[in-house]
Amino acid sequence: MGSFGPKRVVTVNAGVTPPAPYKLEDNPHCLLDKADLVFIDPVGTGFSKAVGKAQNKDFWGVDQDAKSLAQFVQTYVSRNNRWNSPKFLIGESYGTFRNAVLANTLQQRNGLYLNGLVMVSSVWDLGTISFYPGVDLSYILYLPSYAATAWYHKVLKDRPDNLDSFLAEARSFAKGEYADALLKGDTLSASDKSAIAKKMERFTGLSEDYIVKSNLRVKLPQFMQELQRSRGLTTGRLDARFSGPSYSLISDSAEYDPQETAITEAFVAAFNMYVREELKFGQERDYHLFADFGENRWDWKHQAGDFAFFPGSPNVMLDLASAIITNPKLQVEMEDGLYDLATPFFEAEYSTEHLGLPENLQKNIHHKYYEAGHMMYLRDEDLTKLKSNVAAFIDSASKPQ
User: What is the secondary structure of 37-77 as a DSSP string?
Assistant: First the structure.
């Protein structure tokens, strides 16, 4: 309802969309001019549910989810005689994590090879967006996104004019001096800590004192709360361009995500209106935005080759690498928002550079950037850019090779 579908709900860019009535309009950036579109609600979400002897919980896990969706894809392709058609997966957020497993499953188990994967706001190693004690990688990968956010909200003391060059500096600092300092752990001297904190202040807009007290490690919820504390505002997570009033000005961490609360109702209402009034479907059914897990939990155990990953840091990078190695023509396009604090763009760059691919296959991965957040299509200019990029990607990866 915001990106590629035939209808799109109108929302306020980087601000709160008022309550109903909402405006639903034809989407000039719909991808139907390039491909058939099949949107899938996994079991337990939307109108999808388990039938027969199965229960919804049977499908709730990394591998269970991928297996069921692979079966769906194969069934759809067979029923609609599309075995000889180019095929793509487009996923957003966890959908990119799923894409890696699903692509590998489709190719290895179903013999169904893909032309391309579109990764919108990607993450393949959940440890890179978690702030575990004693593990410093997430702090390094988040720093350039902190810098972009501070630049956007004009909280930097000497704000540079050019964002791109500023972020290039932030990347260099993050993987250089900052990473070296964090690796020293508790052996880092007080003077060196102060020197690094002073440089972090230039990039993040946070005070040197606050950074030192945080031991150079500012977790995301703390950053969201602290960056605009003096303005009484909390900074958005999914899209850092959004801000909202802080409930408590003395709280250590953000208590909500201003981006999520700004648009959720508009998307929920618009879809329910569209599916029931225009498509005439689901009148007597509830549409589940999220799965109702109840006493159950998502099963994060994942078997990738000879390695098993357990709760704490599920990782599907081996799945993606395997999918590309076994299908050397598989193309992958990364769509990343500069103001995305859920799946930072530097994390996406780091992950693609650590897949262990041979040099000739590294060129199969392409990066595109947007001046918005996790849902970059909320910004009209970036929706236009996203459609253009994905359409060109589909054209390119569909050509006979």
Answer: ------TTSBT----TT--GGGG-BHHHHHHHHHHHHHHHH
Distance separating the N- and C-terminal Cα atoms of the chain: 34
- Three-state DSSP class for 363? coil
CA dihedral 172, 174, 179, 182 (to 10 degrees): 150
* Residue 230, C-beta contacts closer than 8 angstroms, at least 6 positions apart: none
Q: Where are the domains of the chain?
A: 34-126+309-398, 135-256
Cα distance between residue 233 and residue 211, in whole Å: 19
Sites in the chain below the pLDDT cut of 50: 309-310
Burial of residue 367 (number of CB atoms within 10 Å: 0-12, 13-18, 19+): middle
Dump pLDDT digits (tens) for 177-197. 999 999 999 999 999 999 999
7, 34 contact by CB (below 8 A): no
Question: Maximum distance among all alpha carbons in the chain?
Answer: 68
For the domain spanning 34-126+309-398, the CATH number is 3.40.50.1820
The predicted model scores a pTM of 0.95
